Amino acid sequence: MSPPPIVSRLDAETETYPLLTETEMNRAGQFARLRSVGSGEVLYRPGDLAVPLFILKSATVEIVQTELGGDRLVTVLRPRMFTGEAGMIGSQRAVVLARVTHPGDVLEISQESLRALAARDSQLGEILLRAFLLRRLMLIVKQLGNVIIIGSRHSTDTVRLREFLVRHSHPYTFVDLEIDSISQSLLDRFGVTLDEIPVVICNDTAVMRNPTVLELANCLGLNDNIDDSLLWDVVIVGAGPAGLAAAVYAASEGLGSLVIESHAPGGQAGSSSRIENYLGFPTGISGQELASSAVAQAQKFGAKIAVARAIVQLRCNRRPYELVLDDGTVLYARTIVIATGVRYNKPSIHLHDQFEGSGVFYGATQIESQLCEGEEVVIVGGGNSAGQAAVFLSEGARRVYILVRSSSLSGSMSRYLIQRIAANPAIELLCDTELVGLAGQDHLEHVSWVNKRTQAISSKSIRHVFIMTGASPNTEWLQGCVALDEKGFVLTGYDLDFARPDDQCARWPLTRRPQLLETSLPGIFAVGDVRAGSVKRVASAVGEGAISVGLVHKALADI
Ligand SMILES: Cc1cc2nc3c(=O)[nH]c(=O)nc-3n(C[C@H](O)[C@H](O)[C@H](O)COP(=O)(O)OP(=O)(O)OC[C@H]3O[C@@H](n4cnc5c(N)ncnc54)[C@H](O)[C@@H]3O)c2cc1C
């Protein structure tokens, strides 16, 4: 096979909208149906499911974002170009409209044939995948897509939905009521009350008042392709780095793989502004970028990913194992990979819950950083996540205070972060210090802390506190099934103490011992931060996710 003409694909624009060569068109044609399209014909519109890929032979097609006020042109595709963007990889609904502007012939490739094409023709598959990902990025940057959020940058619910879409790499348009008075008066005229904000318009049709994340995910059809009647080879619970790595390897090795994620893909890593110690990224990579590439990779191999759905119970007394979703749906799994990670411990401080999302945060992403532009902020915690957040927030905030209980950072934070903090005049490190008070009306307004050595209390007008203290495992749903350590982390492999079996270990039914990463039940594995004794790092989580798939194959052979 001759290499592609590199010259025609040198810059980002040509990689986003590449022109296929005659040979590539012919190869794609083997997977396609040739058809004619007429002027004005709509090939697909926002919200359409199972949209085929169209490669243009002689027709011209415009791609537009449909809006209440009229269409916004995204691009015009000419002959030898093709339609589609990242949603196509995971069989998601279309986010834009495609309309024929000049009649002619097109090659129509169904989603099933597209998967066959990508599997058999890696060079063409790579051109398509790269263009799809770049197009999704372009839609996000230009705020084009099938969702409009009308809300306030200061509203907790608006932040919640925007964060979900960002973490899900879903393009959306944000209308900020703080600066758009016309939209505010429009909402007033339609009687939209304060607690019904944000208003979300989805696929041009559904208008939702302050929807839940699940309602938004359902409207966008993010979970449409999940078939709960199937018996899955492996169900992976959690789509952080560990779960996504397991999904990539499981799906690429032909296992029927389903990932269930209670929020959005990326896990803790998704809330990291810059991961600098992950192999292969010398200038660092944002957790968001890492997660969206991993999702595309897993979906490319055929893994299914359901978001905003939590597993609330494992039924382990029968095989196949049963996993109960938060709406009562039951999923059947021959094997399970537990990758549910950890969540931050909440300080037991008065009014803490009241300010969650309106002054108290657990992650420092682009959205939170915009909120504290030019203001003073407090970060509580002395680990790497606190250090990263401090360095990141100091780019926009006026001053960043780090409150640490111990007398130095040396035992808890990487040296490169300690050095950056020391060299940054906008960051003030307060050791031997504890958060003691939060106050305000609807939003956090005042923060107090105490120096434990001198007992001196400081109080400041600060509107943003980032809590990055210790974490606990997400294992409530496993109670009564697999052996946990005293802190609730999942015991695996050699850490399972069969000499002094607890109830769980006593149920091990096989003559062989549990494999590395295998829990006290055969065919159920634990990977990443949720596993007792794990190293709390992205690389180790990814490594364990990958290793677990080899072990899943062995466990499947036992059944
Ligand atoms: C801000 C921050 C910065 C960090 N920076 C670095 C760094 O620079 N380098 C580094 O190596 N490490 C870093 N870490 C640590 C690293 O992110 C974690 O070690 C890694 O994310 C662990 O991956 P995981 O997949 O095991 O778990 P997690 O990332 O915790 O993911 C678990 C996922 O499971 C989901 N889940 C939980 N319960 C359920 C349920 N019942 N049903 C369905 N889904 C569920 C969660 O929503 C979550 O998405 C950082 C962590 C944070 C918070």
Write out key terms for the chains shown.
559 residues; alpha/beta; Jelly Rolls; Glutaredoxin; FAD/NAD(P)-binding domain; 4 domains; 5-stranded parallel beta sheet; 26% helix; globular; binds flavin-adenine dinucleotide
Description:
Mean pLDDT is 90; it is low at 1-10. The protein has 13 helices and 28 strands. It has four domains: 5-139, Jelly Rolls (Sandwich), CATH 2.60.120; 147-220, Glutaredoxin (3-Layer(aba) Sandwich), CATH 3.40.30.10; 231-342 and 472-558, 3-Layer(bba) Sandwich (FAD/NAD(P)-binding domain); 353-469, FAD/NAD(P)-binding domain, CATH 3.50.50.60. A hairpin with a 5-residue loop joins strand 24 and strand 25. Helices cover 26% and strands 25% of the residues. Helix 3 crosses helix 4 (122-141). The radius of gyration is 25 Å and the shape is globular. The protein has 559 residues and is of the alpha/beta class. Strands 12, 13, 14, 15, 16, 17 and 28 form a seven-stranded mixed beta sheet that branches. Strands 19-26-20-21-22 form a five-stranded parallel beta sheet, covered by helices on one side. Strands 2-6-4-5 form a four-stranded antiparallel beta sheet, with no helix packed on it. Flavin-adenine dinucleotide binds at residues 237-243, 260-263, 267-269, 271-272, 275-277, 310-311, 339-342, 363, 384-385, 388, 474, 477, 528-530, 536-539, 541.
